[in-house]
Every structure is written in structure tokens, then in C-alpha cells.
Amino acid sequence: MGPPTGLRAALLGATATRDANDMLHRFYGDEWPRARVAALAPLVDAAALAGDGVAGEILNRAAQELALLAAAVRSQLWKPGERVEVAYIGGAFESRTLLERFRLLVELDDGAHCAPPLRTPAEGAYWKLIGLSEWAGRGTHYVGPPAFFASVRRPEGRRTREGSGYPGPPHLRQRLQHAVDFT
């Protein structure tokens, strides 16, 4: 069955479903598009803040995966230890728990600093659309699935080569796993 959690009741109530199976089937139908499912995230955050261990683990794992994604891009674009700012972008980072964990994990990597984005997503999209992406991002590279964006940028705005390498360098994956498991 799994560890006790208040998430089951909260999610069943929010989705007006009779059981977890019904809820999951609805999530894969037209009635529940991705944005509607994502709108349930504050329930997980609230449960974690109330001490629900399952909810806390969900947020910790999400932060770990996002930090690994940012680290993988960083390892492809910059040398180890080189100063880089990693900006958090997207609705996932509305969770204070997830954001603080992400920040902690990102900053385990020497030279990495976590900060809010320089521009809004709308500004970046506009400048990219009109062909001024270098000005819009000043060397910024956006990484991640649509719902979870992190941007990795060189503080001084120098151009870098494109690339990615998920799941990231083994030494950093081990450091991040250790931090998730023991901090």
C-alpha cells in the first residue's frame, strides 16, 4: 500500500473521483489536460509543509531531478568550477520547499549560484521571436521539459556552445544523491 499520507484524500477530493484508479484514468483523458493536473501541485506543497512525508519526498525528488538537469547542461557548457548562475523558471518553483531544495542542490556544485531569472518568460519569447535571443538571454540556455524550466547562464554573458548531457556527470550525480538522502 505505501506509507500513510494525506495526499490521497486531498487529491480525491480536489478531483471529485472515487478512488486513485479513477483519478489516474481521468488524468490521461481530455477532461484533465496537463495544466489542470499541474494546478494540483499546491496540494502537494501544502501537505509537505504540514509534515506529510510522502509529499515532502515528492518535492525533494522533483528538486533533485531539476538540479541534475541543470547540472547536466552546465557540465556541457562550462568548465568545472567556472562561475555560472542558474535561474529557476516555471510554476514548479512556486513551491518554497522545492525551490529551496533545488537551490541547495545546485549550489553544491563549485561555482554555481542559484538566482531568479533576469527576464520574464514572455520577454524571452518576444526577443527570441524577433531574433534577438543573444540580447534576451545574454548567454542564457533554457533547459527542461515545458513545465519545469531552469536556465543556466554565464554571469558575464559570454556565448557558449549548445548541448546537453542528461543525466549529468557521475561525480555530481553522486554528490546530489548524497545531499538528497542525508540532508
Protein topology:
Elements: H1 7-15, H2 20-27, H3 34-38, H4 41-49, H5 53-77, E1 84-89, H6 96-106, E2 112-115, H7 121-129, H8 133-137, E3 140-143, E4 149-153, H9 170-182
Parallel strand pairs: 1-2
Antiparallel strand pairs: 1-4, 3-4
Shape: globular
Largest sheet: 4 strands, mixed
Count the E strands. 4
Terminal Cα span: 27 Å
- Low-confidence segments: 133-138, 141-150, 157-169, 175-183
The proportion of residues in beta strands is 5-15%
Structural class: alpha+beta
Count of all domains: 2
Q: Helical percent range? A: 40-55%
Radius of gyration: 18 Å
Order of helices and strands: HHHHHEHEHHEEH
Strand order, sheet with most strands: 2-1-4-3
Number of helices: 9
Mean pLDDT: 77
